Structure formats: structure tokens, C-alpha cells
């Protein structure tokens, strides 16, 4: 429960920060970083699951 | 005493959480000044951070594909049983606390085609007598078909490299696994190492080292740090750019030593030297993420500093001795390594040298401009990296690590200070020509975390 609460709070901060970052040109790079690694992770997990199947 | 330590640890964590929350709140409550009079300072901060961010982007985006490649290889691997004879070499110097437990953990291995070779490098503690007694009692067990061959040799003190070479000389295995005398293996570790050698191109493999004593603050910190650095070996494994096979968990084909010679006895990090020589010979090094080895992390700051000094100094020595690898155009050398990873590793030390200055700039800039977006960006990036790494890790104390992830950026200040001191001491040592030998700190013994729900195999406490 505690861990879930911490991560929900973190996700909320990320969302708020994301909106703020969009107004900051240089921090769009950080936002791109987050998107790239999340997408790469999700895609890799899907491909790994496909290979297993 | 135990509850006092626990309360102290909880207080530290609460303090770190409060500081992190304060910085995040500052971004929203304390808006940045309209005028920004420090564009140059801002440019320096962004420039410094961009290098780190680019490196982590590449590693974090590619590392998950290691699992894809591993699964693909496993599915298309040659059929048939592959069970080579394995020798586990343990060099020991004054390791009376951990040596027997290390051997006991190997005796519980699920992979049984194994022998254990222990080389006592002229210890002055009771390890020699203790081990002889242990060996006598083990040999005395009658009619045990699962009994493993144990070879023990006490030799004159000569350094870790010579001890390892003596072990290789005494061993008969086709695959040689080297571990430290303060480590513990899981029953699956040796088998998982061996699986990687089914690919005939793989000449060496590095295991996944974890800290076993995480009940202390420093142990937990090192656990997080090891998780962080070993995750990146996944990308290195994909591109064959691993250049460090640590002494705590390494496996080699015997022919590696036939081809490139034994461990160095002049290099203080003989393990890094050997790994770089393997790369120099154009051989393949794999990362065995499922070959888990628990080691005892330094329990005190002094011990941690000694360890990091040896690593840092040894790495510099190795880089200097193998400087021809940097930007090498030879066809047998991996260009990702010689033009990318090695120069970046050296650049990392240059960055570390200026990191204190960078942090000072960052704090001063944020205070003067009320612009905390750099901080919050850093916190989010580091937390995300940790979260993904913990999620992907096959065997972590997940709950406690997840709790540490949001404050990981602050915890890493401790390792930055330790690494920075090691860097300065290394540079001083190199300039003065002062030599380093076996390094050790007070050992308390290793307790492997007990088996958790969903663990791949249960761990018997030693």
C-alpha cells in the first residue's frame, strides 16, 4: 500500500512536471528521454513475450 | 541496539523524503524569476547533464532488449545436454569469517559436475586451520554420491593474481569460475553460468553480483548501486563491450588462459586487467544476469573507500597498460568498445572530477533563480531508471528498493563523495608512485536474504 501510494504520488508529480516541462524548451529533452525508455521497455517486453509464446 | 539502528535509518530516509518533496514543491510553489541573469551558468548545467542523459538514454533504451536476445538464443540454441566440468576457484587471504560459508554455498549447487579449489594466500588468521577442519569433516561423510571434489592449498603470500593462477593450475575444469571468499552462490548460479557457454563464441561471462548484507545503510546503498551498474551490462553484453569481469563473479573457458596467459600479478585489479586482455584478443564476453552471486559489501565508510580506491587506481593502471585499445582501428577490436565505451569510461572520471563544481553550480543557480526544474528533472529521471531496473531484476529485495528509488538521487551523493575521494587518492598515488596490495576491511559474514515469494529458487541461509 505504502509503495503504491508513493508511486501514485510520483506519477502525479511526473504528470505535473511534464506539463511544466512542455513550456521549457531544454527540458523537453528530458521528457523525450522518459518517453524513449518507457516505449523501448514496453516494446521489448512485448517482443520477449511473443518469442516465449 | 537493533531497534536504535532501525529508527536511525528510518529517520534518515524520512529526512531525505522531506528534502525531495520540498524541492519538488518548490517548482510549483516558488516560480522562477522573470529575469534569468545567469544564462552561462544554466548552459553549463544543461551541457553537463546532457552528456549523462544521452549515455543513460542509450543504455536504458537498449538494456531491455538483452532479455529479448537471450530468449531468442535460448529458443534457437543447439539441442543436447551440455554439462562441462566446472572448477570454482576461491582465492583467500585472511577470510576466516566467510570462506567456509562460501564453500558451503557451492556444495549446495544444483549443477553437480563441479570441483572447488581453494587457495589460501598465506593468511595469518585462523582460516587455514578452520578450513582444514571443515575439509576433514566433509571428507569423513561416508557414502555420499553427491560429494564434490575439494582441493585446498596453503601457499606463501604473493597477491591475489598469483593465488588465482595457482588455483587454475590445480584445477581440471573446462570452465573456470572465479569467486571471492566472502561470496555466496545460489544453487542455480553455476548452471546459469554454464548455459551461456553453450554458445561456442562466448569465452567468458560475468555474473550478477548483489550485496548480501543490506541491513545496514551502506549495504543497502551498495545494493542499489550494484543494481544500477549491473543493469547496464545488459547493453554492454549486446554489443560485446563488457570490459570488467569482477573477481566476485566471473566464468572463463580454460582456453582463455591458454591463449592470453594467466592473471597479472603486477596489476592491482587483476580481474579488470584480464577482462581487458580478453577484449584485446577479440574474444566475446557475455553477461549472465541469472548467475547471481551475493557478496559482502563494506559495512563501514572506511572499508568502502579502500575498496573504491583499489578499483579506481586499478582501472587507471589497466587503461594505461592497454592504452593502445583506445580508438584502436584493428579489425579484431570491437569499435563500440574502443571508440565508445572505453573513452566514455575515462570521460566519466573527468566528469566526476568536476562533479562537485557542477553540483555547487546547480544549487547556487536554483537558489538564485528559483528555478528548480533541473532538480525535479533529475529526481524524476533517476527515480524512473531505478524503478525500471528494480522491476526487471530477477531477485531483488524489491519493497525496500522501491522505497529507496525516489530518494536514490540523494543517496548517490554518498557514493559520489566516496568515488571522488578515490579519484583524488588514485591521482595522488599515481603521481607519487605509491603501491597498493590486497585490500580488506572488517568482515561480519554474509547472510543471504531469505527466499521470497516468486523467487526462482529458494536460498538456504548459511
Describe, in plain words, how this protein is organized in 3D.
The complex is a heterodimer of chains A (53) and B (462). Helices cover 85% and strands 0% of the residues of chain A. Chain A is mainly α. Chain A is flat and about 40 Å long. Chain B is of the alpha/beta class. Chain B has 16 helices and eight strands. An eight-stranded mixed beta sheet of chain B has the order 3-2-1-4-7-6-8-5, with helices on both faces. Chain B is globular, with a radius of gyration of 23 Å. Mean pLDDT of chain B is 86; it is low at 450-462. The A-B interface holds A 2-3, 6-7, 10, 13-14, 16-17, 20-21, 24, 26-27, 29-30, 33-34, 36-38, 40-41, 44-45, 47-48, 51-52 and B 24, 27-28, 46, 50, 53, 56-57, 60-62, 64-65, 67-68, 71-72, 75, 373, 376-377, 380-381, 383-385, 387-388, 399, 402-403, 406.
Extended strand count of chain A:
0
Structural class, from secondary structure content of chain B?
alpha/beta
Q: Number of folding domains of chain B?
A: 1
Strand order of the largest sheet of chain B: 3-2-1-4-7-6-8-5
Q: Supply Rg of chain B.
A: 23 Å
H/E element string of chain A?
A: HH
The geometry of chain A reads as flat
What is the name of the CATH superfamily of chain B? Spore Coat Polysaccharide Biosynthesis Protein SpsA, Chain A
What separation lies between the terminal Cα atoms of chain B?
Answer: 24 Å
Number of strands of chain B: 8
Oligomer: heterodimer
Helix-strand blueprint:
The complex is a heterodimer of chains A (53) and B (462).
Chain A: H1 2-21, H2 28-52
Chain B: H1 2-29, H2 39-62, H3 64-75, E1 86-92, H4 99-107, E2 114-121, H5 127-139, E3 149-155, H6 160-170, E4 175-178, E5 183-185, H7 189-196, E6 202-211, H8 217-231, H9 233-238, E7 250-253, H10 254-260, H11 270-280, E8 284-295, H12 301-321, H13 335-369, H14 373-392, H15 398-404, H16 408-432
Helix pairs in contact in B: 1-14, 2-13, 8-14, 8-16, 12-16, 13-16
Amino acid at each position: 500500500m505504502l509503495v503504491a501510494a508513493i508511486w501514485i504520488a510520483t506519477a502525479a508529480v511526473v504528470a505535473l512536471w511534464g506539463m511544466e516541462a512542455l513550456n521549457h524548451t531544454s527540458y523537453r529533452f528530458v521528457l523525450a528521454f522518459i518517453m524513449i525508455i518507457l516505449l523501448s521497455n514496453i516494446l521489448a517486453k512485448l517482443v520477449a513475450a511473443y518469442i516465449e509464446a | 541496539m537493533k531497534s536504535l539502528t532501525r529508527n536511525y535509518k528510518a529517520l534518515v530516509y524520512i529526512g531525505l523524503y522531506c528534502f525531495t518533496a520540498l524541492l519538488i514543491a518548490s517548482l510549483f510553489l516558488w516560480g522562477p524569476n522573470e529575469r534569468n541573469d545567469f544564462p552561462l551558468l544554466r548552459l553549463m548545467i544543461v551541457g553537463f547533464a546532457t552528456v549523462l542523459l544521452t549515455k543513460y538514454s542509450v543504455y536504458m533504451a537498449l538494456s531491455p532488449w538483452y532479455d529479448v536476445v537471450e530468449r531468442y538464443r535460448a529458443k534457437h540454441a543447439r539441442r543436447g545436454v551440455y554439462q562441462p566440468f566446472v572448477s570454482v576457484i576461491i582465492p583467500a587471504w585472511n577470510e576466516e569469517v566467510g570462506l567456509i560459508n562460501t564453500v558451503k554455498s557451492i556444495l549446495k549447487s544444483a549443477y553437480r559436475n563441479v570441483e572447488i579449489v581453494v587457495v589460501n594466500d598465506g593468511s595469518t588468521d585462523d582460516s587455514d586451520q578452520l578450513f582444514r577442519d571443515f575439509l576433514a569433516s566433509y571428507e569423513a561423510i561416508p557414502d555420499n554420491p553427491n560429494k564434490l571434489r575439494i582441493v585446498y592449498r596453503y601457499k606463501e603470500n604473493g597477491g591475489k593474481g598469483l593465488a588465482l593462477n595457482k588455483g587454475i593450475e590445480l584445477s581440471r575444469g573446462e570452465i573456470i569460475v572465479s569467486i571471492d571468499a566472502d561470496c555466496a552462490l545460489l544453487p542455480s548460479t553455476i548452471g546459469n553460468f554454464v548455459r551461456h557457454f553453450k554458445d561456442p563464441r562466448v569465452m567468458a561471462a560475468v555474473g550478477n553480483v548483489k550485496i548480501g548484507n543490506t541491513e545496514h545503510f551502506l549495504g543497502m546503498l551498495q545494493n542499489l548501486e550494484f543494481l544500477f551498474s549491473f543493469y547496464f551490462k545488459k547493453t554492454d553484453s549486446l554489443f560485446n563491450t563488457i570490459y570488467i569481469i569482477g573477481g566476485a563473479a566471473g566464468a572463463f573457458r580454460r582456453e582463455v588462459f591458454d591463449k592470453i596467459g594467466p592473471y597479472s600479478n603486477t596489476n592491482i585489479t587483476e580481474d579488470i586487467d584480464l577482462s581487458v586482455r580478453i577484449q584485446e584478443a577479440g574474444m566475446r564476453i557475455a553477461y549472465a544476469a541469472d548467475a547471481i552471486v551475493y557478496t559482502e559489501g563494506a559495512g563501514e565508510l572506511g572499508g568502502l573507500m579502500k575498496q573504491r580506491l583499489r578499483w579506481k587506481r586499478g582501472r587507471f593502471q589497466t587503461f594505461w597498460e592497454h592504452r593502445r585499445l583506445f580508438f584502436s582501428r584493428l579489425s579484431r577490436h570491437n569499435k563500440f568498445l574502443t571508440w565508445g565505451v572505453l573513452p566514455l569510461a575515462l570521460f566519466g572520471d573527468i566528469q566526476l572530477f568536476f562533479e562537485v563544481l557542477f553540483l555547487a553550480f546547480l544549487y547556487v543557480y536554483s537558489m538564485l533563480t528559483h528555478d528548480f526544474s533541473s532538480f525535479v528533472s533529475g529526481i524524476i529521471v533517476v527515480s524512473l531508471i531505478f524503478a525500471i531496473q528494480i522491476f526487471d531484476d530477477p531477485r531483488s529485495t524489491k519493497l525496500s528498493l522501491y522505497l529507496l528509488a525516489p530518494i536514490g538521487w540523494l543517496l548517490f551523493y554518498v557514493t559520489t563523495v566516496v568515488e571522488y575521494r578515490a579519484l583524488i587518492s588514485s591521482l595522488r598515488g599515481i603521481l607519487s608512485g605509491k603501491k597498493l596490495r590486497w585490500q580488506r576491511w572488517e568482515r561480519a559474514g554474509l547472510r543471504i536474504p531469505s527466499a521470497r515469494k516468486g523467487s526462482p529458487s529458494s536460498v538456504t541461509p548459511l
